[in-house]
Amino acid sequence: VDQVTGWSAQEFADEFARATGDVDVTYHAASAASVISIAVQAIETTNSLDEAVLTEHIAKSTFSTLYGAISFDENGQSQAPSLLVQYDANGTVQTVYPEQASSSSILYPMPTW
Questions:
Q1: 5: Cβ–Cβ under 8 A, 6 or more apart, which residues?
Q2: How high is the mean pLDDT of the chain?
Q3: pTM, 2 dp
Q4: Alpha-carbon gap, residue 62 to 56, rounded angstroms
Q5: Residue 32: what pLDDT?
Q6: What DSSP line would sit under the chain, residue for residue?
Q7: pLDDT digit string, tens, across residues 74-105
């Protein structure tokens, strides 16, 4: 549940669809909303708009967002789990990584079709 809005991912999707008329809510919108939530949480916690203060706080903290618990590694990369997907020969999206979540093998080299 997002600490700023109090919404779950499903509540966000419902609100997004209601506000935009778009029933296909992609992860892009949820990810963008989570970035805003992280910024709001950092500003409210540090009571600062100083970039250095916010950068340090964000680097060392975990944030509750509708996208899940978000934190960053020593390189500034999100530690949120992610999936690698690609289209198969039939045009169906398949998860290819991580292996335990895969629905298909990776196609490499990618066919030119």
A1: 12, 33, 37, 66
A2: 90
A3: 0.73
A4: 12
A5: 92
A6: --TTT---HHHHHHHHHHHH--S---HHHHHHHHHHHHHHHHHHHHT---HHHHHHHHHH--EEETTEEE-B-TTS-B-S---EEEE-TTS-EEEEESGGG-SS---SSPP--
A7: 998 888 877 888 888 888 888 888 888 889 88
